[in-house]
Amino acid sequence: MSRSSSKKRRDSRTHRGWRRWFATQVPERRVARAVSNSSRSVLHLEHLEQRVVLASFIPTIFTDSAALDSGSLRAAVLEANANGDATNLITLPTGTYNLTLAGAGEDAGLSGDLDLTAAGKTLTIRGAGPGAAAIDASALADRVFHIVNAGMTVFFEDLTIRGGIARDGGNPSAVASLGGGVLSNGGNVTLDNVAVDANQALGGSAPIGVPVLRAGEDFILRAGR
C-alpha cells in the first residue's frame, strides 16, 4: 500500500471523528442557549416623577450690553425674560457688573434699569457673596431692578445692589419716586444675604435704598450667612 493511500485513510478517519464529536456537542449548546434565554429578566418601564430643569446663565463680561450674544448681565436678563422656562438662574462670577446703557422709562430691559418681565416665572440672581459680586447702576441715573409684571418670583442671593436712583414710581400714573434698588410691581421678592447699598428714591417718601412693595406682594429679607 502506498504511503499516499495510508495518509488518505487516516485523514478520512480523523475527519469523521471530528464530525461525530461536534454532533454530540450541538444538543448541549442548544440546551445551554435555551436555559440562558429562559433565565433572562423581563424589562419594564417605570414612570419617573416630573422634574424641572432650570435654564442657567453665567455672564462673561462686566460691561453693559443689550446684544444677546454679548455675555453681559443685561443679555442674561433679556434671555431669561424671553425663554419659555419656568425657572431661570443667573450666576454671577466675582466682580462688579456696571450698568451704563442710559434710557430710563422703558420696560423691556434694553436700556436703563434691568426690567424683569416674566410673569408667573421664577428667576434667581445669585452672586458669590455681597463682598464679591456687585451690580452697580451709579452711571445709569435709574434704579437697578424693576420687576415689571405681577406674579413673578425673584430671588436675589449673595450679592450687592448698588447705586440706583429712582426718579419715578415705575408707571406713568405714579406720583412718588419709588425703589432705588429694586422696584416690584406685584412680584414675590426675596433678598437673601444681599447688601443694598447707596440707592436713592428722589422726590418721594419711600425708604431710601430698599425695595418698595405694593399691596398683595410678598417680600422677604434674610440675614447674611
Descriptive key words:
single chain, 225 residues, alpha/beta, 2 domains, eight-stranded parallel sheet, three-stranded parallel sheet, 2 helices, 20% helix
Low-pLDDT stretches are 26-36, 205-217
Radius of gyration: 35 Å
- How would you sum up the major sheet? 8 strands, parallel
* Helix-strand string: HEHEEEEEEEEEEEE
* DSSP strand content: 25-35%
Counting DSSP E segments of at least 2 residues, the number of strands comes to 13
Q: For this entry, what is the oligomeric state of its chains? A: single chain
Please report the distance between the alpha carbons of the first and last residues.
Answer: 104 Å
Structurally, how many domains make up the residues?
2
Helix/strand-derived category reads: alpha/beta
Mean pLDDT: 77
Number of helices: 2
**What's the helical proportion of residues?**
10-25%
Shape annotation? globular
How is this structure best described in words?
The protein is of the alpha/beta class and 225 residues long. The chain folds into two domains: 1-44; 55-222. It is 20% helix and 26% strand. The chain has helices spanning 3-38, 73-82; strands at 55-57, 87-91, 95-98, 114-116, 122-126, 133-136, 145-147, 153-162, 165-166, 182-184, 188-197, 200-201, 218-222. The strands form three sheets. Strands 1, 2, 3, 5, 6, 8, 11 and 13 form an eight-stranded parallel beta sheet that branches. The longest helix has 36 residues, at 3-38. 34% of the residues are buried.
